[in-house]
Design goal:
alpha/beta, Aspartate Aminotransferase, domain 2, 2 domains, 13 strands, four-stranded antiparallel beta sheet, binds pyridoxal-5'-phosphate, Aspartate Aminotransferase, domain 1
Length: 416
C-alpha cells in the first residue's frame, strides 16, 4: 500500500458555507450587471486599525531593520509583556491569572481547531447547535465521530440545540460529555450566556471531570455588566475550562492575526497513565506548551508589538471606539428590521443578529429571496447546524453606509 490520505476528511462537508454563498452571489452579479450588492454576510471586519497599533507595528518593523535592535524567534508562549498585559486585563474582571497560563497565538481559529489535539480520541464531544463550524469539523477530521446522517449531524457527537425556547443558550448535554465547546457571545446567534447558565456548565464539568473550551472571541462586545466576559468569572472554572480569545474583532486584527489561549495551572482531566487516574496541576498547561512548541513557532513579533500597544490605555480607547461603531451598526439593523415585523435576536451584546426567517421558509430559500428581492447577502442559519434551520445570520461588521443601505433595501423591497 502507498501513502494513504486521512479519509475522515471525506466526512466533512466539502463545500464550505462561505464558498457556496460566494458562488450564489457571483451568479447573481452576472445575471444582474451593475446592481450593487449589500453584504451583511461574512463576519469579517471593515474598519481600520487604531493609530496606536499602527505606529507600534511600524516601530517594530523598523527595529527589525537595524542590526542593533533586530530580534528573531520570540519567547515560547509569546512576548512576556504582552502575556502580562493580557493577565492584567483579567484582573480588572476580578480574575487572577499568571502570564504562564497564557499562550499567545495567531488567532482563535487556530487554537480552537488545535486544542482538541491534546485530548484523547475516545472523548465524547458536545457542541452547541448552531455552532462555529470549526468545533465540529476539527473533531470529525481527527476521528472522534462517525459519519454525518441525512440531517447533517455526526454520529458520536452530542448536540446542544439553541433556539428561541431556551433563549439560544445551550442546555447541559443530554448524555455524559467529556469535552464541551461553548461560545459566548455566540457566533452565529448573538446570544450571551448568563452567569447562571455558565455556572451550571462549570458545575457539570467539575462533577463529570469534563473540560470546557470557552470561545470568548466576542467578549469585547458585551456591554451589560452582569454578563460574564470570561468563564473564569465563575468559581471553579479554572479547574475545568480552557478559554480562547482574539484581537480580531476587538482591535480589527482579522488580517493581522493575533489571539491567546488560557490554560490554567489548576486545570485537571483524566490521565490513564497516572496512578491517581488524573493529571496533576500544571500538566495540561504543559501538554499545550508541548503541542505549541512542537507545531508552532509563535505569532509574528511585529504583530505582538501591535497587540501590546492595543492593550495600553490609548489602544483600549481605540478598541472601545471600534466596538461601539460595530454595535451602532447592530442597533441600526435590529431597530430597522424589527420595524418591518421581522423577529430579530442578538445584536445587543454581540456583533451578530439572528433573524427568524419569515413564514417559516427554510434558510437557504430565504437567502435566495433576500438576494433577489433586496440585493442583501446574509448567512443561512442552516449552515451552522441543523438547529439553525429557519434562521438567518446578519453581521454588524459592515461599513456604515452599506449597513444603512441594506436595512433600507430590506424595508423597501422584502415581500413579507
Ligand atoms: N471563534 C469564533 C466564534 C469566531 O466567530 C471566529 C471568527 O470568525 C474565530 C473564533 C476566529 O477568530 P480569529 O480571527 O482570531 O482566528
Amino acid at each position: 500500500m502507498g501513502a494513504q490520505i486521512n479519509t475522515d476528511y471525506s466526512k466533512v462537508q466539502q463545500n464550505y458555507l462561505f464558498s457556496t454563498i460566494a458562488k450564489k452571489v457571483s451568479e447573481f452579479q452576472v445575471a444582474n450587471p451593475g446592481k450593487e450588492i449589500f453584504r451583511l454576510g461574512i463576519g469579517d471586519t471593515t474598519q481600520p486599525l487604531g493609530q496606536t497599533v499602527v505606529k507600534a507595528m511600524q516601530d517594530a518593523a523598523a527595529r527589525l531593520g537595524d542590526v542593533k535592535t533586530y530580534t528573531g524567534y520570540g519567547a515560547e508562549q509569546g512576548n512576556l509583556p504582552l502575556r502580562q498585559a493580557l493577565a492584567n486585563q483579567y484582573t480588572s474582571r476580578g480574575v487572577e491569572l499568571t502570564a504562564d497560563e497564557i499562550f499567545v497565538g495567531d488567532g482563535a481559529k487556530t487554537d480552537s481547531a488545535n486544542i482538541q489535539s491534546i485530548f484523547g480520541l475516545d472523548n465524547i464531544v458536545a457542541v452547541s447547535d448552531p455552532a462555529y463550524p470549526v468545533y465540529v469539523d476539527t473533531n470529525v477530521i481527527s476521528g472522534r465521530t462517525g459519519s454525518a446522517g441525512k440531517d447533517g449531524r455526526f454520529d458520536g457527537l452530542i448536540y446542544m440545540p439553541c433556539n428561541s425556547d431556551n433563549n439560544f443558550m445551550p442546555e447541559l448535554p443530554s448524555r455524559k460529555a467529556d469535552l464541551i465547546y461553548l461560545c459566548s457571545p455566540n457566533n452565529p446567534t448573538g446570544a450571551v450566556m448568563s452567569r447562571e447558565r455558565l455556572g451550571q456548565f462549570v458545575d457539570y464539568a467539575r462533577e463529570n471531570k469534563a473540560v470546557i473550551f470557552f470561545d470568548a472571541a466576542y467578549a469585547a462586545f458585551i456591554s451589560d455588566p452582569d454578563l460574564p466576559k470570561s468563564i473564569y468569572e465563575i468559581d471553579g472554572a479554572k479547574e475545568c475550562a480552557i478559554e480562547l480569545n482574539s484581537f480580531s474583532k476587538s482591535h480589527g486584527f482579522t488580517g493581522v492575526r493575533l489571539g491567546w489561549t488560557v490554560v490554567p495551572q489548576k486545570l485537571v482531566a483524566v490521565d490513564a497513565l497516572s496512578e491517581i487516574g488524573f493529571t496533576t496541576p500544571g500538566q495540561i498547561n504543559g501538554l499545550w506548551k508541548r503541542r505549541q512548541t512542537t507545531f508552532f513557532n509563535g505569532a509574528s513579533n511585529v504583530v505582538q508589538a501591535g497587540g501590546l500597544a492595543g492593550l495600553t490605555e490609548e489602544g483600549m480607547k481605540e478598541s472601545r471606539e471600534l466596538v461601539s461603531f460595530y454595535m451602532e451598526n447592530a442597533r441600526i439593523i435590529r431597530e430597522g428590521l424589527s420595524q418591518t415585523g421581522l423577529k430579530i435576536y442578538g445584536g445587543t451584546d454581540a456583533p451578530f443578529l439572528w433573524m427568524k426567517t419569515p413564514g417559516g421558509v427554510d434558510s437557504w430559500s430565504f437567502f435566495d429571496r433576500l438576494l433577489n428581492e433586496t440585493r442583501v447577502v446574509g448567512t443561512p442559519g442552516a449552515g451552522f447546524g441543523q438547529a439553525g434551520e429557519g434562521y438567518f445570520r446578519l453581521s454588524a461588521f459592515g461599513h456604515r453606509d452599506k449597513t444603512i443601505a441594506a436595512v433600507e433595501s430590506i424595508k423597501a423591497n422584502l415581500k413579507l
